[in-house]
Write a structure and sequence with these properties.
Blueprint: E1 7-9, E2 40-42, E3 48-52, H1 54-62, H2 64-72, E4 75-77, H3 81-98, H4 105-121, H5 134-147, E5 153-155, E6 157-158, E7 161-162, E8 164-178, H6 181-185, H7 194-199, E9 203-220, E10 223-232, H8 237-241, H9 247-259, E11 267-275, E12 285-292, H10 296-319, E13 330-331, E14 334-335, H11 339-342, H12 346-353, E15 358-360
Parallel strand pairs: 3-9, 10-11
Antiparallel strand pairs: 1-8, 2-3, 4-15, 5-9, 6-7, 8-9, 9-10, 11-12, 13-14
C-alpha cells in the first residue's frame, strides 16, 4: 500500500522551545498554558491527533512510569548542562549551514556565536562549575568548521531554501480510545479543550503521526544524505553501532524519503561532535562521522515496532496503569529525574511533580 507523504512544516526555532521557569511553590502556577505540550489535539471532525516523536518513545521505552509524568502530566526536569550545550551547538550549526552561501564569513561566525549565547541565556541552570560554557561551545564549533573546512558537503535546497532544521509529520496508524480515559486524569490533562472531553462519549478515533525535526539534508559526493548532529562527552565504538537499528534514524530517513522522493536519499549520516572536559593531555574536541544505509526491511520493521509500542502506551493510558522499570532508577548517568516522585507515597507524588523541582514540558517537534 502506498504511504502518504509526511507534511512538512516551517523551519523550527529551537531557542524558543526551552522550558518555562516555574514559581517556587507547590501550587500549580498560573502560566500561558498554550505552550504546554498536551498528549492529544482535537481535530475539527471530533477525532484526535496523537503526535509521537522519538523523545516521547524513548521516554516510554526507558520506563512506563516516567512517561506518565512527562507525556501525560507534561512535567519534566529543568535543563541540564549537557542538553543546553547540545542545543547551543545545534543552533550554531543551523545558522552556519543556512548561511552557507553567505560570502561574509565574519558575519556568519558572529551570528553563530550569537546563537550559542542566546541558547545559554535561556537555560534554567547554573554553569559555574561546568566546563560546558558558551566560550567552550564556540571553541568546539570553530574546531569543527576548521576540521571540515574543505569538505564537499553542500546543503540540499528545495524551492530555493536549504533543507536545514525542518519539521515533519508522517501519518503512521489509526487507533481508537474510549472517552472514559479522560476521567482517569481529570479535565484538561490530556487535551487543551476540557469541554470537548466532558461532552465526548464512546470510542474516539486517534490519528497517529510520527513527528520530528531533521537537522540537515546535504549533498556529499553526489549523494543526498540525511544528517543528524550529535554532541557527546563519551565516545566509543558502541556509540556508532547503536545507530544501525536505532528507531530515530530509520524513522527519520523513512520520513525524508517519502517527503522528498526525487532526492533519492542515500541514508543517514551521524555527525558526531565529541566535546569532552579539557585536560592537559587528552583531546577536548574530536569530530567523527558515520554513514548508514538502510534496506526496505529496516523500514518495515521500524513501522511495526513503533506502532506496537504506541499501542502498548495507549493500553497503559486506558487502564491508568504505568508499571515502573526500576533498572533505570539509577544508571551510569545518575538517577532518573522522577526518582524522587516515585519514592513518595502515591497521594503525595503529584504535589512534588507540580513543585518548582519540575517545569512544564513545552517542547514540540511540530507546532500543530
Amino acid at each position: 500500500m502506498e504511504q502518504s507523504r509526511p507534511s512538512l512544516l516551517p523551519p523550527s526555532t529551537p531557542l524558543s522551545m526551552l522550558p518555562i521557569i516555574l514559581q517556587t511553590d507547590y501550587s500549580r502556577p498560573a502560566q500561558d498554558t498554550s505552550r504546554i505540550r498536551k498528549l492529544f489535539k482535537w481535530r475539527n471532525d471530533g477525532e484526535l491527533d496523537l503526535h509521537f516523536d522519538w523523545s516521547s518513545l524513548e521516554c516510554f521505552l526507558s520506563c512506563n512510569r516516567s512517561a506518565l509524568w512527562k507525556l501525560i502530566h507534561s512535567r519534566t526536569t529543568k535543563g541540564k548542562a549537557a542538553l543546553t550545550f547540545g542545543a547551543a551547538m545545534h543552533a550554531a550549526l543551523e545558522v552556519y549551514y543556512k548561511l552557507h552561501r553567505e560570502e561574509d564569513k565574519v558575519k556568519v561566525l558572529q551570528l553563530c556565536r550569537q546563537a550559542i549565547d542566546a541558547s545559554f541565556a535561556e537555560a534554567t541552570i547554573n554553569f559555574l562549575d561546568e566546563y560546558r560554557t558558551p566560550d567552550y561551545c564556540y571553541n568546539c564549533f570553530l574546531q569543527y568548521i576548521t576540521h571540515y573546512g574543505n569538505e564537499s558537503l553542500t546543503p540540499t535546497e528545495q524551492d530555493g531554501k536549504p533543507l536545514v532544521e525542518f519539521s515533519f509529520a508522517l501519518d503512521l496508524a489509526k487507533m481508537e480510545i474510549d472517552s472514559s480515559v479522560f476521567l482517569h486524569y481529570g479535565p484538561g490533562c490530556l487535551t487543551d479543550d476540557e469541554e470537548k472531553e466532558i461532552r465526548s462519549a464512546g470510542s474516539i478515533p486517534i490519528h497517529i503521526k510520527w513527528t520530528g525535526i531533521c537537522d540537515l539534508i546535504a549533498t556529499i559526493n553526489g549523494e543526498n544524505w540525511l544528517i543528524d548532529h550529535k554532541t557527546t562527552s563519551i565516545l566509543s565504538a558502541d556509540f556508532f553501532d547503536g545507530f544501525n537499528l536505532a528507531m530515530q534514524p530509520v524513522g527519520y530517513v523513512n520520513a525524508a524519503r517519502l517527503a522528498f522522493p526525487d532526492l533519492n536519499i542515500a541514508g543517514f549520516m551521524v555527525n558526531t561532535l565529541a566535546c569532552r572536559k579539557p585536560t592537559k593531555t587528552g583531546k577536548g574536541f574530536e569530530p567523527h562521522r558515520s554513514y548508514l544505509r538502510y534496506e526496505p526491511w529496516h523500514f518495515d520493521e521500524w513501522k511495526n515496532d513503533v506502532v506496537q509500542l504506541i499501542g502498548e502506551f495507549l493500553h497503559n493510558l486506558t487502564l491508568n496503569n504505568w508499571p515502573k522499570k526500576t533498572t533505570w532508577c539509577v544508571g551510569k548517568y545518575g538517577k532518573c529525574p522522577y526518582l524522587d516522585v516515585c519514592s513518595l507515597p502515591p497521594d503525595y507524588r503529584l504535589h512534588l511533580l507540580q513543585s518548582d523541582q519540575y517545569v512544564y514540558n513545552t517542547w514540540k517537534p511540530v507546532s500543530a
